[in-house]
Write a structure and sequence with these properties.
Low-confidence stretches: 13-22
Strand content: over 45%
Shape: globular
Mean pLDDT: 86
Distance between the termini: 31 Å
Number of domains: 1
CATH superfamily: Porin
Number of strands: 20
Structural class: mainly beta
Largest sheet: 16 strands, antiparallel, barrel
Length: 359
């Protein structure tokens, strides 16, 4: 069971005065969907299709900003997943405290890595069953990159510049942070960095991440690098492309366990409707033939208001003979995984509501 952060949230609220902290805010997302998920299970004793009610990455958070002297400000945020389908709280999300200056922001806590942030806005089906993490950040079905980091120290240059730099260091030590600390545990630190360029309708980003020995003692660093490109036309069409090369640090048969992956997407806004299509490819592992997968997603959103939308989508991951990729998991971490070489797919109907208000 996940630890609840809300007693601490409540205590924080009691300490905050609206008059002294006008920038304090409560915000969140309510996201639920009806999903029909299949995985071509070859075992006749198992069902190969199921119907589920899913709480798709719903969350609730508190955040604030207090302006200090010398163009400085204190930032804080506490955010937690909300389990709408079964009730209660799920995993913690971006939760930190930090300082903002004219040279950038320095944050300490749990936060999405620069590697994750660089391309997350290029995913047109983000936080649904058709999330691009089915292939991007995943190696042979194991999601290693595009994550949030615990025990993180993050620096970001100001957002209002064309060129933006981000750098994060995380101890990522399993268990307690206190001594005694084994030599193997001390090597489980991670680095993540990114450089972004924004000019009008054009976006470009490059990111690199090293996981230290997080994959296991004695292994070379698990490493990944990716490039993202986004373009918005003046006619309501948005296009994106991502290339990624990721390695676990392991070797098999003299070859590194790693692969290249690609993602293409197109979204077009037509009144209240947004049509979307995406295709992804995870190439075969360097060490295993026919271990890649193809990813496909198509669907649309209908805006009921500025804060609420309905969506309909279909997505599938089609594995090669030795591929082990599956669909994006829900907030509980349970996804649709197919046997090697099989296809897993999902049909989803969902509603998303976003809210925020200051106090």
């Amino acid at each position: 069971m996940y630890k609840s952060y809300w007693p601490a949230f409540a205590a924080m609220l009691l300490l905050l005065s609206p008059a002294a902290h006008a920038a304090s805010e409560i915000y969140g997302v309510g996201h639920v969907s009806l999903d029909v998920v299949g995985n071509d299970d070859p075992d006749p004793a198992n069902e190969d299709r199921s119907f589920s009610l899913t709480s798709g990455h719903s969350y609730l958070g508190l955040r604030g900003r207090e302006v200090l002297q010398n163009q400085m400000a204190v930032l804080w945020q506490a955010e937690n997943t909300v389990d709408f389908d079964a009730g209660g709280w799920g995993p913690g999300r971006d939760t930190f405290a930090g300082l903002e200056t004219r040279f950038g922001s320095l944050l300490i806590g749990k936060h999405a890595t620069p590697y994750r942030m660089t391309t997350e806005d290029l995913d047109v089906f983000a936080d649904t069953r058709a999330d691009y993490s089915a292939v991007i950040g995943s190696i042979d079905g194991l999601s290693l990159f595009n994550n949030r980091a615990d025990n993180a120290l993050l620096y970001m240059t100001p957002r209002d510049k064309r060129l933006r730099f981000m750098l994060a260091y995380s101890t990522r030590v399993t268990g307690e942070d206190d001594l005694p600390l084994s030599t193997d545990e001390s090597r489980q630190d991670a680095w993540s960095t990114a450089l972004e360029f924004v000019s009008g309708p054009l976006y470009m980003g490059f990111a690199y991440e090293s996981l230290g020995e997080l994959m296991g003692p004695g292994l070379d660093d698990g490493k990944a690098k990716k490039f993202g490109l986004g373009w918005e036309t003046g006619s309501g069409t948005r296009m994106s492309f991502i290339w990624e090369d990721a390695r676990t640090g392991e070797t098999s048969g003299g070859e590194q366990v790693g692969r290249a992956a690609y993602y293409l997407s197109l979204a077009h806004v037509q009144g209240n409707l947004t049509w979307k299509i995406a295709y992804g490819l995870a190439e075969a592992l360097d060490s295993v033939e026919d271990s890649g997968a193809h990813f496909l997603a198509l669907g649309g959103n209908y805006a009921l208001s500025a804060r609420t939308e309905l969506y309909l989508l279909y997505t599938a991951v089609m594995n090669e003979d030795a591929g082990n990729y599956g669909l994006q998991p829900d907030h509980d971490g349970t996804g649709a995984v197919a046997a090697a070489g099989d296809t897993t797919d999902a049909f989803s109907v969902g509603i998303v509501h976003r809210f925020s208000f200051e106090f």
